[in-house]
Amino acid sequence: MNDCLFCKIIAGEIPSTKIYEDDKIFIFADIAPTAPVHWLAIPKTHIASLKEVTADNSEVIAHIYEVAAKLAAEHDEFKDGFRVVTNCGESAGQSVFHLHFHILAGRAFAWPAG
Ligand code: 5GP
Ligand code: ZN
Questions:
Q1: Which ligand 1 atom sits nearest the alpha carbon of residue 32?
Q2: For site-directed labelling of 112, which of 3, 65, 87, 93 has its Cα 20 to 30 A away?
Q3: Which residues pair with 89 in a beta bridge?
Q4: What is d(CA 64, CA 110) in angstroms, rounded to the nearest whole number?
Q5: 25 phi/psi in degrees, rounded to 5
Q6: pLDDT tens track for 62-79
Q7: In the sheet that 101-105 helps form, which strands lie side by side, from edge to edge?
Q8: What is the rounded CA–CA span in Å between residue 101 and residue 47?
Q9: Using alpha carbons only, what angle is made at residue 49 by residues 25 and 108, rounded to the nearest 5 degrees?
């Protein structure tokens, strides 16, 4: 999608700090981190939000979780626990409408979420 911020990050049109990339997904550092580790994991195909996930495109989500587990095992900040979360819709806090999973680590996280 031409005017999507995260599609532009994937294309390299907007700079980002890359953490991981393969043919299906891209993981980069959040520009305004809320934890010592705050990454965003996104599918390379444009999916607006979790609402748009179907049997035809859901495979990439399992892949994101699989890579998140691998990265967690490789980084010390994850050893005591970490959080992976997606905000769906404006009232849940979604501000960029390209599906993304926040990967957060390096501090304790409260529950329930605010
Ligand atoms: P949301 O609020 O949609 O759940 O999360 C969007 C996230 O994207 C926010 O945490 C915000 O800081 C991050 N973000 C917004 N614009 C940019 C950008 O240009 N570069 C990077 N790396 N992160 C961004
Ligand atoms: Zn997009």
A1: 12
A2: 65
A3: none
A4: 23
A5: -140, 165
A6: 999 999 999 999 999 999
A7: 18-21, 25-29, 37-43, 101-105, 82-85
A8: 12
A9: 75
Closest CA to 32 of 75, 114, 99, 95: 95
**Cβ < 5 A residues, ion ligand 2:** 1, 4, 6-7, 46, 98
Q: Is 30 in the pocket of ligand 1 (CB under 6 A)?
A: yes
Residue type, 91: S
Task: Report d(CA 16, CA 29) in Å as an integer.
Answer: 7
CB of 48 within 8 A of CB of 97? yes
Ligand 1 atom nearest to CA at 86: 4
Long-range contacts of 91-98 (CB under 8 A, 24+ apart): 94/49, 96/5, 96/6, 97/4, 97/48, 97/49, 98/1, 98/4, 98/5, 98/6, 98/7, 98/42, 98/46, 98/47, 98/48
pLDDT tens digits for range 25-54:
999 999 999 999 999 999 999 999 999 999
